């Protein structure tokens, strides 16, 4: 008869052995973002090293947003448009994945991490030239209601833009 202590030792060994396949595949866990279209430079595959971009991309995008919106500085480095143009590539059928699809470069990680990406409430999730449809601006979007209410948009402009949504 096996003692409780011997049983516990065997159980620990059994659990440890059953965990080996998971440990050996630990590097394969998580999403695999699509490859970029081209290298941004010869030194790196992006404007920053991959490990830096994975960790700090949101800081770069927020800093870029602040420079552009508040200071009027417009450059391509750390630009959301440049990221999308390089990283969002067509599928085999020629169509582009949209935000929310696991094939979309941004969504491939953000879906896995359960992070809401609201950049594309205003910005295009497609590379420039991939779609002729302009950003839809209407009062159904809470952000647009706020703009109309606080006077940032004139009623004429809002009406002109929402008329395009009805066509």
Keywords:
mainly alpha, single chain, 167 residues
Descriptive report:
The protein is 48% helix and 0% strand. It has 167 residues and is mostly helical. The longest helix is centred in the middle third of the chain and has 22 residues, at 50-71. The radius of gyration is 24 Å and the shape is elongated. Residues 132-139 have low confidence and may be disordered.
Largest sheet: none
Query: What's the pLDDT, averaged over the residues?
Result: 76
Total discrete domains: 2
Please tell me how large the radius of gyration is. Answer: 24 Å
Q: How large is the share of residues in beta strands?
A: under 5%
Structural class, from secondary structure content?
mainly alpha
Low-pLDDT runs of 5+ residues are 132-139
Shape: elongated
Write a brief caption for the model:
The protein is an all-alpha fold and 167 residues long. The protein has helices at residues 4-24, 50-71, 80-87, 105-113, 142-149, 155-166.
Topology:
Elements: H1 4-24, H2 50-71, H3 80-87, H4 105-113, H5 142-149, H6 155-166
């Amino acid at each position: 008869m096996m003692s409780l202590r011997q049983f516990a030792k065997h159980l620990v060994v059994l659990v440890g052995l059953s965990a080996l396949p998971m440990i050996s595949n630990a590097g394969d866990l998580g999403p695999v973002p699509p490859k970029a279209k081209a290298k941004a430079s010869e030194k790196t595959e992006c404007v920053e090293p991959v490990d830096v971009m994975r960790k700090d991309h949101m800081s770069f995008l927020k800093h870029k947003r602040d420079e552009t919106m508040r200071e009027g500085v417009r450059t391509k480095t750390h630009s959301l448009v440049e990221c999308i143009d390089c990283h969002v590539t067509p599928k085999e059928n020629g169509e582009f994945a949209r935000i929310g699809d696991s094939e979309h470069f941004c969504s491939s990680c953000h879906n896995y991490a359960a992070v809401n990406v609201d950049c594309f409430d205003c910005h295009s999730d497609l590379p420039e030239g991939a779609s002729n449809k302009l950003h839809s601006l209407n009062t159904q979007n809470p952000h647009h209601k706020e703009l109309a209410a606080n006077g940032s948009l004139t009623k004429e402009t809002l009406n002109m833009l929402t008329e395009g949504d009805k066509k």
